[in-house]
Specification:
Number of domains: 2
Keywords: Signal
Helix content: over 70%
InterPro entries: TPR-like_helical_dom_sf (IPR011990)
Number of strands: 0
Shape: globular
Organism: Algoriphagus yeomjeoni
Number of helices: 10
Strand content: under 5%
Protein name: Tetratricopeptide repeat protein
């Protein structure tokens, strides 16, 4: 019985590894990630988002395609003159799909916090009090899930900076977290290679927080 269980576990791990290392999947993801870098308007962001969603349909166990589709929609809400609330709601739904495939994932949890930050930014006066604790809870959870996730730490530093500005307190905590995230980004950069498709974004935002600390 124990041997059968062990064999099953090894088989599952092998299948998971084979899917993760599938050259076609990696190539498709890399192509879309390169396309993501060229986005200059909402129409282009929609095209790239749809590309990731096609990969999601073809790779039903992979969370990253839904993650990047959600990220692009979130970034579009910050960058372009569109229906921002609707776009952020769509982003959250995609993030939830990613979460269903990889529950307890720090990157997905941090992205959900980022989406809420976008919602707050649309109407801070009426949403800040109710949504800020939710966003900080998600980011805190993301940090606890993986303390080497620079995006979770960087996004929390942005929230801390906003809170300090709102309450008129010092930015020391925010600055410390932003500097910490930059150190983690440096470690992350050593892992990136030609087939690296995990999230790497957010360093510029951390640098912007640090620039306010001088």
């Amino acid at each position: 019985m124990k041997k059968s269980i062990l064999t099953l576990a090894v088989t599952i791990l092998f299948i998971a590894f084979a899917q993760a290392a599938d050259p076609a999947y990696i190539a498709a993801m890399q192509k879309q990630l390169e396309a993501k870098k060229t986005i200059e308007n909402f129409e282009q962001s929609q095209t790239v988002t749809n590309g990731f969603l096609r990969i999601a349909e073809a790779s039903e166990t992979e969370w990253l395609p839904y993650y990047y589709a959600a990220l692009i929609k979130t970034e579009a809400a910050f960058r372009f003159d569109i229906e921002k609330d609707k776009t952020l709601d769509e982003a959250m739904e995609l993030a939830k799909k990613a979460d269903q495939l990889a529950p307890g994932n720090s990157e997905i949890t941090a992205l959900q916090g980022y989406i809420l930050m976008g919602k707050i930014s649309l109407d801070p006066a009426s949403r800040g009090q109710s949504m800020s604790p939710q966003a900080m809870q998600l980011l805190g959870k993301a940090i606890n899930l993986d303390r080497e996730n620079p995006r979770a730490v960087s996004l929390m530093s942005q929230m801390e900076l906003g809170m300090s500005e709102f309450f008129g307190t010092g930015p020391e905590k925010a600055c410390g977290m932003a500097k910490m995230s930059l150190d983690i980004y440096k470690k992350e950069e050593t892992k990136i290679n030609g087939e690296y498709i995990l999230p790497t974004w957010g360093k510029t935002q951390a640098e912007q927080v640090v620039s306010k600390c001088k």
